[in-house]
Amino acid sequence: MTMTAEPGTGTFTAAATPAAPMRPMTLPRPRGPVSEALIAQLTGPEHAPVGGLAVAATEGLAASAGLLLDDDLQLALFLMYELHYGGLEGVPDTWEWDPRLLAVRGPIEREFEDALRHAIPQPTATRDVPEALFALVAAADDGPGLSDFVEREATAEQVREILACRTIYTLKEADPHSWAIPRLHARAKSALVEIQADEYGGGRAERLHATIFAQALRGAGLDDRYGAYADHVPVEVYTSMNLMSLFGLHRRLRGAIVGHLAAYEMTSSLPCRAYANGLRRLGFGPEVTDYFDEHVEADAVHEQVAARDLAGSLAEDEPAVANDILFGAAACLAIDGRLWGGLRQRFERGESVLRGPLS
Predict the structure, then answer these.
(1) How far does Cα 156 stand from its chain's mean position?
(2) pTM of the predicted model over 0.70
(3) How many domains does the chain have?
(4) Which of 64, 83, 96, 233 places its Cα 20 to 30 Å from the Cα of 284?
């Protein structure tokens, strides 16, 4: 794919070449006994008993010092969720809805949700939900974050590490929130589809946000294959991704996935501007900055649509889910704040944020 300037605009767009289909993710290395047992189960005889996996999961939950930062359990949960997305290389698709695997996943999900609800204060919808969302976002903005660091201080190698960390979500950007579409109706459904249509390129395959992020990876000298950095990223990346999948895949949590998307869109535009500025400071070209430039304007519009038309309409139509909308937003802000803020802290200590060097 090449980048071309639209005449008279100076805006770069991807040339209209067919997008490659998303391939199943290559299985990463296990990070403990639960993910090891899961990978062995998924790659072994399809009808083999799952007793060993079930025991490993039970023991892993009992021994975990904190599920939100448990490398082994978060990776295992991520791999089970991945069966609902692009799949796993060498793993039969029939595992997606295998009741034996769902029975193993269920207790991990329950413990994960419990850990989230204990770690994140539960906001109460005592006011207009859109205004409450804006208040949550304002309260979470407690100073310079990772985007400010990229704009002013980051090295090119640190930027590449950040891009590698973003691959787990951004190469399938928007997919976790799309699970909510059939679970909403009327105004909320229409607002969500409006947002997602932009995320998926507005009918232009070459403008899929996942596609232009893959272009950014190639432009930065990184591997654009989905899962290429699965062994490199810290556990916080998987916790962030699993948060979205948990909310998106459970209809009872439809309010939470809407709140998550609202907070995500409300905190995207200005950081993306800072990322783009930092990339240009470091000499990266438009094939890399295009992804972030695209989000500056788009997410400024999405902010209002997500807060008012999506979350506000859902709260008006289904008041019972209003608290979950705010919980989903608070969870997004807390978990992603912990992820990206943690990366900045490690960089400032002179550390790599990855588990192994980039090739």
Answers:
(1) 23
(2) yes
(3) 2
(4) 233
Residue 252 near residue 308 (C-beta atoms within 8 A): no
- Torsion sign over Cα 307, 308, 309, 310: positive
The residue-averaged pLDDT of 6-11 equals 40
Residue closest to 312 by CA, chosen among 251, 259, 243, 254: 259
pLDDT tens figures, 222-280: 999 999 999 999 999 999 999 999 999 999 999 999 999 999 999 999 999 999 999 99
Q: Are residues 163 and 49 in the same domain?
A: no
Do 199 and 173 meet the contact criterion of CB atoms below 8 Å apart?
A: yes
What distance in Å separates the CA atoms of residue 295 and residue 213, rounded to the nearest whole number? 11
Domain ends where: 72, 97, 119?
119
Q: Is 250 within a domain?
A: yes
280: containing domain: 129-348
Instruction: Characterize 294-320 residue by residue with b for buried, 16 or more Cβ atoms within 10 angstroms of its Cβ, and e for exposed.
Output: bbbebbbebbebbbbbbbbbbbeebee
- CA atoms within a 13 Å half-sphere pointing along the CA-CB vector of 174: 20
**pLDDT, average across residues 10-32:** 68
